[in-house]
Amino acid sequence: MTRIWAIASNTFREAIRDRILYLLLVFALLFMGFSQVLSLLTVGGEEKIIKDVGLASISLFGVLTSVFIGVALVSKEIERRTIYTIVSKPIHRYEFLLGKYCGLVLTLLVNTSVMTAWFYLILFLKGFADPRLLLAIALIFMELLLITAFAILFSSFSTPILSTLFSLSLYLVGHLTWSLHLLEERVRGSGGRAICRFLYFALPNLEIFNIKTEVVHQLPIPATLPLWALLYMAGYGGAVLATACIILRRRDFT
Amino acid sequence: MAPVLEVSHLARSYRANLSLKKYWILRDLSFSVEQGEIFGFIGPNGAGKTTTIKLIMDLVRPDAGSIRILGEPHQSVAVKRRLGFLPENPYFYDYLTAAEFLDFYGRLFGFAREVRRARSDAMLERVGLANRRDRQLRKFSKGMLQRLGLAQALLNEPEFVILDEPMSGLDPVGRREVRDIILSLKAAGRTVFFSTHILSDTELICDRVGILSKGELKAVGRVSDLLGNRVTHWEVAFSGIDPAALPGIAAVVSREGNETLAASPNEESMKALVRAILERGGSLHSVIPQRESLEDIFLREISR
């Protein structure tokens, strides 16, 4: 555990000394501030616009941080050969990978906390603060944990550019898996239906983490949803990280 | 006593992109490194030295063969506690300072904070970087990174140290310092295995050497055994006499003014030459037996 923590805290230190993190964070904060200008253009919907843009910003910039930093975490270590001296120390390769993952999760936690604090400052000033927004942000954070696991998986066998492409595609597909369900009902052949069904269950369903509309429009949220989302994230994320560990264990560092 | 390093029938190949053809980097490589010795692994560029070291450190996997370090399989995480490793042209996290860097590596060994601090300071002192402890590695020169690499390799006071080209990128002073560190490790009872293509260093400090060429071990043994005591020829320096009329000369090596340096093929020829020089009133300056150098052996072995 101490070794995982050593790698994690060093990964966190690397991230907070990386300019890309601050660039994304500044963009996110500016974007949230800009929501007030956007709300001026609409009639009567100021509260909804500010909440909508705020949550969307936390989600989008969180995903970008997770992907842009996550895809380089392992591949950069191999490419720059910094991994040589790390894995020659008494550390298992899976400990290295989990340490990298935890380091980025810690970075995302700090990042999301800063964005949330700024978001709530804007909401307080406008008198729109709502504790249910925190639940929506907690689910966004769970989604980030899953996307980070995928970014690390891709990073363990691919180049940063391809891994970015894979991760962002997966993010888009993950929010569209419901359409596979629809497709399954409309496809005639049983083979086609089986493929749709398989993809529907195999691909991550990221919509499970999306309760922005319900929160912003004050719609009811099933009480068990956060728990299911947490279990889904833990199960799916665990499987993805385990796959990444197996790949890294077999990999040659040439 | 079991060898510190035991490499048996090691083989490693690679395939070029999209090709089915196998290219062998190493074939049936076997050798061992004994307790307390300095073993020099020499060979030209592309001989397979770095691949061998990567296989030993479990950075790449062999096609065949086995490796044991300190009596344990080389993949064992526990054995790495007793091991120090410096890769070729090391790269480290350049956003860290030298002190942060060694502290991080100390944490991978699970050392307590005070131990990490004490060892980091001692290591920085030992490699001559004590006054650079708070400087970021991105501002380090190649030579300074090499020294810091050595510091991380010795941080855990390892029983066995593996160094891949430890002298590369260093100036003569730096090379001397690394040589001294290697010798001090041997004096403390540690075992050192290092690869190099700088033969003068090898001849000076190694107990045994292995000569690798095209993925095969061409020769291995004590430096003194490999060199032998055999005199290949004699060099005789004299003046005041024309070499053309003298017996026992195989070749004139150089001639400046009336001073001549001549080579005699064997002891009898040399004696005849010396007698002739003295009888004909010439001045004899020196008579030096010439032995085979490690470089001669190296060049002969790799050309086979």
Give the terminus-to-terminus CA distance of chain A.
28 Å
How many domains is the backbone of chain B divided into?
A: 2
Helix content of chain B: 25-40%
Question: Can you tell me the overall shape of chain A?
Answer: globular
CATH superfamily of the largest domain in chain B: P-loop containing nucleotide triphosphate hydrolases
Helix count from the secondary structure assignment of chain B: 9
Sketch the major β-sheet of chain A.
Answer: none
Oligomer: heterodimer
Strand order of the largest sheet of chain B: 6-7-8-3-9-10
Strand content of chain A: under 5%
What do we call the CATH topology of the largest domain in chain B? Rossmann fold
- Name the beta content range of chain B: 25-35%
Poorly predicted tracts of residues of chain B: none
Distance between the termini of chain B: 34 Å
Task: Tally the helices of chain A.
Answer: 12
Name the poorly predicted regions of chain A: none
Quickly list its features.
heterodimer; A: 254 residues; mainly alpha; 12 helices; 80% helix; globular; B: 304 residues; alpha/beta; Rossmann fold; 2 domains; 6-stranded mixed sheet; 4-stranded antiparallel sheet
Short précis:
The complex is a heterodimer of chains A (254) and B (304). Chain A has 254 residues and is an all-alpha fold.
Describe the structure.
The complex is a heterodimer of chains A (254) and B (304). Chain A is mainly α and 254 residues long. Chain A has one domain. Helix content of chain A is 80%, strand content 0%. Chain A is built from 12 helices and no strands. In chain A, α1 crosses α6, α2 runs parallel beside α6 and α7 packs parallel to α12. Chain A is globular, with a radius of gyration of 20 Å. In chain B, α5 links the parallel β7 and β8. Chain B is elongated. Chain B starts with a strand and ends with a helix. Helices cover 32% and strands 31% of the residues of chain B. In chain B, α2 crosses α3 and α3 packs across α4. Chain B has a 6-stranded mixed sheet with strand order 6-7-8-3-9-10, sandwiched between helices. Chain B has a 4-stranded antiparallel sheet with strand order 2-1-4-5, with helices on one face. Chain B is built from 9 helices and 14 strands. Chain B has 304 residues and is an alpha/beta fold. Chain B folds into 2 domains: 223 residues, Rossmann fold, CATH 3.40.50; 62 residues. The longest helix of chain B has 16 residues. Classes of the chains: A mainly alpha (254), B alpha/beta (304).
